[in-house]
Design brief:
By secondary structure, the chain is an alpha/beta fold. About 50% of the residues lie in helices and about 10% in strands. The chain has 17 helices and nine strands.
Length: about 350
Amino acid sequence: MSTGRGRAWAGPCFTSLSGPHDVMNDLDLSTRAAIDAVIAGLATAGYICSRQIATAVFLAQHLQKPILVEGPAGVGKTELAKASSALLGLPLIRMQCYEGLDEAKALYEWKYAKQLLYTQILRDRLGEELNGVRSLSAAIKRLQGTGDIFFSEQFLEPRPLLRALQQPRGAVLLVDEVDKSDQEFEAFLLEILSDYQVTVPEIGTIRAPVPPFVVLTSNSARDLGDALKRRCLHLHIGFPEPRLEERIIAVKVPGVSAMLRRQIVALVQELRRQDLRKLPSVSETIDWARALLLLHAEHLEAEMVRETLNVLLKFEGDVKAVESKLPALTEAARRGVAV
């Protein structure tokens, strides 16, 4: 009996569990234990997540449905796909979306140079194939018997979507920033997301031997269609609560002391309450922690915060808006109280 992604069952449950990705596939364990295993497995891959995120990964694996992950830039949407690849022990195949992305760049294209070479070889051997043939109908019949491989998988150059479907053990397919693609491309994805297959007019339908684990990410640059959303599990990743963000920094920047880590998170949380054009995300928090570690900071000081504020805030207007508040924000972060 198969889980559908290339992993086999041994009777009612696994005879041995070699890692979190195996526990994740063992439905005889309690659901809570299985989701705990997902949390632990993602943490092993360097991804500290909430229970909601782990539950979405668990459900997507067993329901064989894509996950549509939405949220602000820098909260870990793309990293979730990378960590899932490590958790499941499957290759990661990434397709970066952009305006104007079409089928030839996302699915396949023909190897034209090899097709031309094949045409030259065929022309050179045409005389041998038609030797002794006296009528046009006989010539056509003879040529039909030689086989037509001009439009076949031998001359097909797979792009990310097709490569993900062709993996014999399955793969993690990351369709990154799908909201940047055109609506036509979004419609093109529907067959892949619902049936894990694609149709090549010259060949026919190509089906995945093992359905890929699909993660689509969106920064909400535009609204996605209902048809796409219906085919996916929806997951929104927002800014983490303070305790979770501290754990993320502890994993990503282990050299930062616990006291400084608390102060960093406290100040970033205060900045997110301000009226800014772009609020600092988790990726900016990690970068700032690394910067402070490089500067040998032991605790937050208003002057050092001011000098490194450009690591957290990406627009000059935002920097100007909070500069006058920095002494109060820094002192509040050091004392662990809200402003």
